[in-house]
Backbone:
């Protein structure tokens, strides 16, 4: 058992920290962290941030050097997330491009595809979205109805996607379509296209979320056009592409855990500062018990993540047990943010500019409801753990 | 970074598991219900032969001079089979306390005998109608001439009938609550009146002991007089780290039982493990187990360091483990249905032990407060 970092890892941390301090937007470290409300302005600022990361060599550290990455180890990725959380760095607008599409293309893309897309993913010139969910295909993605039909030397795509994050600012879409029908084996006949979002057949309509944000979109495709060159992998083998892609999402949960850990420390600070009847809230025995309970859960989740990470490093790829990390961090985030809002008393309802504490817990609380749904609902995670970790039988429907 | 047990530690686990399985696993606990500790005694002898009883004892006293983390496989495996008895009190409470506070003579007298498996020590702290706090300790140890006289009653003393010696927490000073307690280590003598108490966890024996003018020597006092409560906290850190490991092993057994039963029990024409109501309940148990395991491994590592979170890590490992052990063993009964409510199936052994440990040497709220205060909050 060893919790230390190697000299090389510490050097990596120092290098990144120094770079961040010199390159974060002006006033960021001092607390000037408000991003523009206007969507175009928001996207312009975040594209500029991503380009800066690219120029510093920090946009996609896990990618191989030959494609503009740093060949980072898993531990270096962990350090990267820790440092980004430490300075509350601006969000990575091309998260899907950097962490999912890029690594998948490097893995199974053609030379032309690599040449055409990878650099633009890195620089932020082309922002990517994922076209997965549909009105009738949520947890059961195989129910997707968006069709791609060959029409001469091109494909015509018709259908609707929903919950498409960044759809409104995206230039490209990693799109799941149905190209043939197999009622008994519904995961067959799916094809992944890299679709251009800037064309007459594609329309995006923002969805206002319960936290006031408009990250999600509906995407309507009416005779949208793609070509053979836009297919990832083979026709009808999209399910394999999807599985390969998920294996590349190596350390995203780590980033969420480090954020959670920081938010727990902020909650303790809140309880120390907030007074009830003239006394700091943290002196209240019930609050103390709850804090002890959260401490155990937050530390336990983090340590469990390190345990699974150790296994991943030893085996070369993550096992099914990593589903536990996703389940735990999202449910814990929900409970912790609810607690942080609760202990603010009636002031806990104050929102946005009137919110009394930093971070703005009301946003964290509202956003937390999306976390247990997106990227596989808690129920789907529990099925995965039950079936793939414990070996329990699948239900009859699948 | 490497957060895992070593290959050697895992190999050692294999030996202990195999050995305990030859005694029938939970059969050892069931034999205790029938007041038959013969096989348990054999288990102790074998554990000593394997070197378990000397793992954390320095080489000069016949041990291996290893760390708390090296005891983890032993405790997890004992928990897996719910092995009763005094191994944990002896190795994880008495040994660390002696290493830190005993005189050379006291160490010579006890550590080699513990390492060789000759001596098992029980812990007597609680008193009738009192709680586990300095004010609750009223057994008196009074100096008379060159000797000391012990009077009072201790209760809920684990496996007193198997103990060769007792570590006692007694009052030596009436002026100060906390700084008025001392630790005493005494061998079992005729002068102790030991009475077995009835407990709903019948596989874990507890007794009441009356001390009536028992004369003891100054050499039997461990560490500084009147500083017993403070010194005990150090021993309790090791004990609670070990307890969390034992519970992790027990939880592992429970999750295994529930999973295997759900795979074979059929209702409505299919294995009940297909139903999400059952599947998700077992998954929740598994998640609690894995979090408890991670907290416990870390606690057993950090307890031998001087990291800032040393105490908080141990206390949080204990509270999480004791709380979730009750929860998972209760769910296990529910998943088994009617058969889970019987004496025949092991389910009840686990829920009873879970309740026992949740309330042993301080409750969950007691340790939650310790988590928070040890972090300076």
Residues:
């Amino acid at each position: 058992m060893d919790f230390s970092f190697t000299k090389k890892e510490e050097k990596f941390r120092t290098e990144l920290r120094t770079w961040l301090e010199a390159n974060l937007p002006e006033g960021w470290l001092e607390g000037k962290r408000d991003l523009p409300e206007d969507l175009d302005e928001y996207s312009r600022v975040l594209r500029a941030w991503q380009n800066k990361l690219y120029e510093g060599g920090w946009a996609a550290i896990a990618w191989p050097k030959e494609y503009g990455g740093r060949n980072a180890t898993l531990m270096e990725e962990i350090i990267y997330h820790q440092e980004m959380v430490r300075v509350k760095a601006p969000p990575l607008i091309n998260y899907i491009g950097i962490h999912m599409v890029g690594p998948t293309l490097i893995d199974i893309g053609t030379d032309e595809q690599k040449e055409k897309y990878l650099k633009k993913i890195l620089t932020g010139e082309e922002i990517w979205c994922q076209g997965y969910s549909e009105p009738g295909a949520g947890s059961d993605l195989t129910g997707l109805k968006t069709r791609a039909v060959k029409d001469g030397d091109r494909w015509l795509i018709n259908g609707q996607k929903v919950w498409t994050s960044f759809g409104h600012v995206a230039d490209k879409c990693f799109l799941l379509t149905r190209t043939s029908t197999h009622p008994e084996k519904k995961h067959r006949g799916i094809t992944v296209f890299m679709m251009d979002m800037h064309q007459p057949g594609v329309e995006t309509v923002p969805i206002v979320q319960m936290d006031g944000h408009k990250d999600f979109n509906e995407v309507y495709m009416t005779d949208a056009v793609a070509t053979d060159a836009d297919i990832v992998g083979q026709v009808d083998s999209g399910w394999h592409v999807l599985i390969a892609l998920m294996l590349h999402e190596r350390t995203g949960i780590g980033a969420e855990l480090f954020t959670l850990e920081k938010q727990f420390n902020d909650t303790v600070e809140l309880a120390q500062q907030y007074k009830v009847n003239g006394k700091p809230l943290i002196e209240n025995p019930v609050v103390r018990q709850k804090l002890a309970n959260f401490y155990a859960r937050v530390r336990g989740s983090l340590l469990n993540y390190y345990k699974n990470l150790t296994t991943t490093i030893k085996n070369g790829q993550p096992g099914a047990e990593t589903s536990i990390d996703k389940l735990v961090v999202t449910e814990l985030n929900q409970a912790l943010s609810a607690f942080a809002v609760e202990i603010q008393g009636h002031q806990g309802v104050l929102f946005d500019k009137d919110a009394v504490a930093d971070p703005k817990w009301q946003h964290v609380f509202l956003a937390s409801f999306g976390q247990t749904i997106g990227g596989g609902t808690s129920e789907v995670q529990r099925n995965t753990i039950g079936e793939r970790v414990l070996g329990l039988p699948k239900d009859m429907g699948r | 970074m490497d957060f895992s047990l070593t290959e050697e530690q895992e190999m050692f686990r294999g030996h202990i598991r195999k050995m305990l399985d030859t005694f029938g696993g939970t059969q050892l606990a069931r034999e205790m219900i029938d007041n038959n500790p013969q096989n348990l005694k054999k288990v102790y002898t074998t554990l000593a032969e394997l070197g378990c009883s000397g793992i954390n004892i320095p080489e000069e006293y016949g041990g291996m001079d290893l760390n708390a983390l090296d005891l983890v496989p032993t405790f997890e495996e004992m928990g897996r089979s719910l092995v009763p008895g005094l191994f944990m009190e002896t190795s994880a409470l008495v040994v660390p306390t002696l290493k830190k506070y005993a005189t050379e003579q006291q160490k010579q007298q006890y550590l080699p005998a513990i390492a060789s498996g000759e001596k098992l020590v029980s812990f007597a702290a609680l008193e009738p109608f009192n709680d586990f706090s300095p004010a609750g300790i009223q057994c008196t140890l009074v100096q008379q001439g060159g000797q000391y006289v012990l009077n009072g009653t201790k209760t809920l003393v684990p496996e007193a009938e198997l103990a060769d010696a007792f570590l006692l927490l007694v009052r030596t000073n009436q002026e100060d609550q906390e700084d008025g307690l001392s630790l005493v280590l005494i061998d079992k003598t005729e002068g102790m009146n030991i009475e077995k108490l009835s407990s709903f966890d019948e596989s874990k024996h507890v007794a009441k002991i009356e001390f009536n003018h028992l004369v003891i020597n100054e050499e039997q006092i461990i560490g500084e007089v009147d500083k017993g409560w403070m010194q005990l906290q150090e021993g309790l850190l090791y004990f609670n780290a070990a307890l969390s490991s034992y519970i992790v092993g027990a939880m592992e057994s429970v999750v295994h039982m529930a999973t295997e039963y759900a795979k074979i029990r059929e209702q409505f024409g299919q294995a009940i493990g297909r139903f999400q109501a059952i599947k998700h309940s077992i998954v929740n148990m598994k998640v609690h187990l894995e979090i408890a395991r991670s907290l416990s491994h870390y606690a057993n590592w950090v307890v031998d360091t001087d990291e800032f979170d040393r105490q908080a890590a141990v206390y949080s490992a204990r509270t999480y483990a004791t709380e979730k052990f009750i929860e998972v063993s209760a769910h296990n009964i529910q998943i088994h249905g009617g058969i889970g409510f019987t004496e025949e199936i092991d389910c009840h052994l686990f829920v009873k032990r879970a309740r026992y440990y949740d309330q042993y040497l301080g409750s969950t709220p007691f340790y939650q407060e310790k988590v928070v205060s040890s972090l300076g909050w």
Q: What stands out?
A: The mean pLDDT of chain B is 96.
